Amino acid sequence: MLSTPAGFHGFHVHAPSSRYREEPSVELPRCANRIQEGTGTVTRQDLTDVIGRALTPTTVLPRAEEVRELTERLREHVTRLVREVEDRAGAMTPATAEWRHATSAVEDARHELGAGPGPGLRSAVAHMQNLGRVCQRLRCHSPSETAGSGRAV
Fold this sequence. Notes:
Layout lengths: L43 H12 L8 H27 L6 H18 L6 H19 L3 H4 L7
């Protein structure tokens, strides 16, 4: 027979509050706003929306269909951004801080693109979020997304 500690009266379960269902906004870094509108078929708003949706914290896991759709869109964005950042890094002076940051972002992106979503929904969500973070990092180094920001391209 198990005994309970003195003063312990069991667990009290609270009904879920509506405040836990609100999705907080995700604040993107300043460089995320440096993209020109309409680079090819990708718009600034689409990229911002996809990253925001992938990184928005929730109390429940998203539906598998939504995770697949966001992951696919993020992979397309990351693939495009990797090419752009690699081209830009090739024109940089090697071993500078900016070059190291850009090449590190590309390496992380390639690693995440090579990783799969895993066997379950939880691992697929983690992969989607990692792709969102990688995409966010690449945006800071992409010439098409830093044009017009006053930063040298």
